């Protein structure tokens, strides 16, 4: 393991930001710290970086107890959402900075800067000032700069958070490819589940200062440990007091044993699929309709339209998680709210 966090706690006044957090970050992998805003992701990253001191617990990096080490002795590189570059220095000078203060030979600095700029596809911008780059190019420069000193760990705090959706998506694909090339142990913070699912090898779900689950994207999506994780990673709807994925519900137009009876209240076409909102018998129009997704062809074959009587049951093998108490998905939306 590259990073071992053991029993870390952190409070700000009365507020507990991290509550006895333990996690092992594997060497050479891309790990996402994922969770809703305020859950403690950045605090954990900053404690690993040494920019924040934990109240209790231990941080080990590459086998060394780093708990009391200052950031510059931890051999970590970091990149934040709003990267502070040296504005008066060219891109190549910014990237060279860490090597120059370490008094590396000139020829080595030159070669390494060239390699890094090639790696982040900024060779042609070497002589520009940071202000002459786009937001995405600046973040790539920041990554080159962080990688220059060959850190054993790269820590990224929402590195693409300030960029528009399209650039963000390009950069996340690029980060994945970059990581496949350099294999440096990387931990990145995100509140975007799609970003974590697409990019990470391993995801640590953090909520209210606690770890909810650790696993591969597949593990978390297919085997969520609880209703929070299930609701946070992917769409969910509530069927018979359980969270179910909307594509995991079987719809029949004739009564079926144990099925929930209801009436189609709304049919919504979204791209290639159709969302059917089913109001269970006796339920009110209070936004708690069961949502089922299916292909348009299938919806047509069942003849589904507003007013059709249907019976719903989970597909065989569907993941179901009991709904515990109040809604728990981010933003306190009702658990069956879906983005349409
Ligand atoms: N210096 C501080 N003083 C007081 N409270 C703080 C401080 N830093 C963080 N907090 C609080 O600790 C909690 C966790 O913050 P943190 O930044 O770790 O969350 P996060 O999961 O990274 O959220 P976001 O995605 O919004 O950045 C928040 O409620 C925040 O208000």
From TrEMBL:
It holds the Pfam family ABC_tran. Coiled coil: none annotated. Keywords: ATP-binding, Cell membrane, Membrane, Nucleotide-binding, Sulfate transport, Translocase, Transport. GO terms for molecular function: ATP binding. Residues 3-233 form the ABC transporter domain. The keyword Nucleotide-binding applies. This is Sulfate ABC transporter ATP-binding protein. It comes from Nocardioides imazamoxiresistens.
């Amino acid at each position: 393991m590259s990073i071992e966090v053991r029993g870390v706690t952190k409070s700000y006044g009365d507020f507990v930001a991290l509550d006895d957090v333990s996690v092992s970050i594997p060497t050479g992998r891309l790990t996402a710290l994922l969770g809703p805003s305020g859950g403690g992701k950045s605090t954990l990253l900053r404690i690993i970086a040494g920019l924040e001191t934990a109240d209790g617990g231990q941080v080990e990096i590459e086998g060394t107890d780093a708990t009391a080490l200052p950031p510059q002795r931890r051999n970590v590189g970091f990149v934040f959402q709003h990267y502070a570059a040296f504005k008066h220095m060219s891109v190549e000078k910014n990237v060279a900075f860490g090597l120059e203060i370490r008094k590396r030979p000139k020829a080595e600095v030159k070669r390494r800067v060239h390699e890094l700029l090639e790696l982040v596809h900024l060779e042609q911008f070497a002589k520009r000032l940071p202000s002459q780059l786009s937001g995405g190019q600046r973040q790539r420069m920041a990554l080159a700069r962080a990688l220059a000193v060959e850190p054993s760990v790269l820590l990224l705090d929402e590195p693409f958070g300030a960029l528009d959706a399209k650039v963000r998506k390009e950069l996340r694909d690029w980060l994945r490819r970059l990581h496949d090339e350099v294999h440096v142990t990387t931990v990145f913070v995100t509140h975007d589940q799609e970003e974590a699912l697409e990019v990470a090898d391993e995801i640590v779900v953090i909520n209210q200062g606690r770890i909810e689950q650790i696993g591969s994207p597949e593990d978390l999506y297919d085997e969520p440990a609880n209703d929070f994780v299930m609701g946070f990673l992917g769409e969910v709807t509530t069927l018979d007091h359980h969270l179910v994925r909307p594509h995991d519900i079987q719809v029949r137009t004739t009564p079926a044993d144990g099925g929930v009876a209801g009436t189609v209240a709304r049919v919504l076409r979204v791209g290639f699929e159709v969302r059917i909102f089913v109001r269970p018998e006796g339920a009110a129009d209070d936004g708690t309709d069961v949502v089922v997704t299916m292909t348009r062809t299938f919806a047509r074959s069942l003849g589904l339209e507003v007013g059709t009587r249907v019976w719903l049951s989970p597909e065989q093998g569907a993941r179901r998680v009991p709904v515990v108490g109040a809604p728990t998905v981010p933003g306190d939306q009702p658990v069956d709210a879906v983005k349409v």
